[in-house]
Design brief:
This protein is α+β, with helices and mostly antiparallel strands. It has four helices and eleven strands; from the N terminus they run E-E-H-H-E-E-E-E-H-E-E-E-E-H-E. The chain has a seven-stranded antiparallel sheet with strand order 2-3-6-10-9-8-7, sandwiched between helices. It has a two-stranded antiparallel sheet with strand order 1-11. Strands 4-5 form a two-stranded antiparallel sheet. Strand 8 and strand 9 form a beta hairpin. It is globular and about 60 Å long. About 5% of the residues have low confidence.
């Protein structure tokens, strides 16, 4: 499962098809707005794609080589962490309202069963709701039943910039789906640190998730 238009060597959605058996998706598809950039989560591919994201983010600001280097490092670290967790693709937003960046990301993670039984989506929804998360079963138009979860992560930090300790809040909207006719799952994880418009960003994430589907 590699995502559209890539030759990255990620795992397939399931085992090789058996004649007469129900079809197994070869891959996924998902449409994102203009201003979102896709990074294949494979070390052979991501440096060039990360460079394009950084160039877009810093366009017209050639006087900031250190900023570009640091941004490249941060995105590469994010890509490696997602890759190590089974991620196959990452989408980064470079959208802006005026001079304000609408920072957001989406990570596609492949979750293979590997001989075990993965938790059922409806049971996970119950568990997440008990933990205080917003968790519901939803129907995606092109992909079928999915578990949608929304929650927040808070990180208390002191950036040493003289402005004191602050709390960084990230809003996360996650969709978990079972790959048709396999025991495997895919998780689509959206996140944004733009807390003042978190609800608006969550609506955007829902719209993008509504385009998620399978290719056979």
């Amino acid at each position: 499962m590699n995502g559209p238009e890539t030759d990255a060597g990620q795992p397939d959605a399931g085992a090789a098809p058996v004649p007469g058996a129900p079809p197994i998706p070869r891959d996924y598809r998902m449409a994102v707005p203009a201003g979102w950039h896709r990074v294949v989560l494979d070390p052979q591919f991501w440096d060039r794609q990360i460079g394009k994201v950084v160039d877009t983010q810093t366009a017209g600001r050639d006087d900031l080589p250190l900023v570009k280097a640091r941004l490249t490092e941060l995105i590469r670290e994010q890509a490696k962490a997602a890759y190590d967790n089974g991620g196959v693709a990452m989408y980064l937003s470079t959208m802006r309202i005026g001079d304000v960046p609408l920072s957001a990301s989406a990570i596609i993670t492949y979750v293979p069963a590997l001989g075990r039984t993965l938790p059922a989506l409806d049971q996970l929804a119950i568990n997440y709701a008990a933990a205080g998360h917003e968790a519901t079963m939803v129907e995606l138009p092109a992909a079928g039943l999915a578990l949608r979860r929304r929650y927040r992560e808070e990180l208390v930090c002191d950036p040493k910039d003289g402005k004191g300790v602050r709390t960084l809040v990230t809003t996360i909207v996650e969709y978990r789906l079972t790959i048709p006719n396999t025991p495997n799952q895919v998780v689509v994880t959206f996140s944004t640190p733009v807390e003042p418009i978190a609800d608006v960003m969550a609506e955007l994430f829902d719209t993008i998730a509504g385009t998620f589907g399978w290719t056979y």
